[in-house]
Amino acid sequence: MFRSKLKTIVLALSVTMMAVSLISFPQESVDASIRGLDMWWEIVFPSLLPFFIVSEMLIGFGVVKFIGVMLEPLMRPLFRVPGVGGFAWAMGMASGFPAGAKLSARLRQEGQLTRIEAERLVSFTNCSNPLFIFGAVSVGFFGNAKLGVILALAHYLGNFTVGLLMRFHGHKENKENKEKQKAPSIRKALSALHKTRINDNRPLGKLLGDAVMSSIQTLLMIGGFIILFSVINKMLFHVGITAFLAKGIEMMLTMLHFPVELSLPLISGLFEITFGSQMASQVDESTLMHQAVIVSLVLGFSGFSVQAQVASILAQTDIRFKPFFFARILHSCFAAFYAYLLWNPIYVRFYSNEPTSNAVPVFNLGDGLMSQKILDSLAEFGPLITIFALMLYTIILAKRTLAK
């Protein structure tokens, strides 16, 4: 009872402080909102929408079930999840946050995963996509395309390690089938594909409409969280809370022989990864290796903004959020460790001619880098794609409302 009352008081005070901060810093809050909105409708919406729609179609047509049967001998021994987890893992890495959570929740709703299996799966299928790591962070913030190799290796190796460790999650709660795994069978996979499509029993138009509606509803929710946490991060910075928390981080960085100037980017990155990564790239007192370790930690933790998006998606199912949060702590630690471990044998050895600090003109390597060109195209055409998709969503919603 006391804990419940304390939680009520803390939440009420937090929201009140947020309201007071918005009133005290109106211009800063508007700027932060615009920054979050720009990120959403230029990059996030147009880049994630195709993945979400195609994923829904693949599930409805039974292709995911087919992939699940074929990957069962691989995913079950490694991660103790069904073969369909391989689809969620691949799509999560390709499209980035929070596609892994979206697909894991969808597969749980389809009954293709138990709750424990879904919690294992969602813990390692949420990661940053290569476009963001190479284009936005490495080239956009650091002006160094080669840095993306270290960041990507550390991020995905950390993600894989988390998956191996989370296979032990719920071993006491979940009684699994101990039957010997058989070799994948094309006949069984095709049979599963056909049965899934027949059982779905939705016409193509209905399936496509449902895919569009579900995807856009999820992306609208994601957009709200991006804008909200962009404002929260800015308000925490202006009221001095970020600097206060950074004082505690400085002691830890000093013990690790890291520049204390990285404490502020680290705290900011724990709330929102883009802002934290950008701030880390601007710390002139730090070496590039120290910056890479901090950015890897931030990317692994994902930020409270992404975690709030995942929590909202998981709330639609019986999947618990705590295992996911614990996995993010593990991922941040492993990613930072791998970045430090791989720095000399990979970056220094193969890219020794690269500068060892961040004194590099921003975007100096962007002209010839495919990921940067994709980001530039999204920034140019992304808003048009977003507006068109929202218009389509409005038309479908209006037709379905009138048909009732």
From TrEMBL:
Residue stretches spanning the membrane: 48-71, 78-101, 121-142, 149-168, 211-232, 253-271, 291-313, 325-343, 381-398
NCBIfam families: spore_ylbJ
Cleavable signal peptide: none
InterPro entries assigned to the protein according to its UniProt record, in alphabetical order: Gate_dom, Spore_IM_YlbJ
Record key words, sorted: Membrane, Transmembrane, Transmembrane helix
Keyword Ribonucleoprotein attributed: no
Protein's recorded name: Sporulation integral membrane protein YlbJ
Organism in which the protein naturally occurs: Bacillus mesophilum
Top-level lineage group: Bacteria
Residue ranges of every copy of the Nucleoside transporter/FeoB GTPase Gate domain listed in the record: 44-141, 219-315
Keyword flag NAD: no
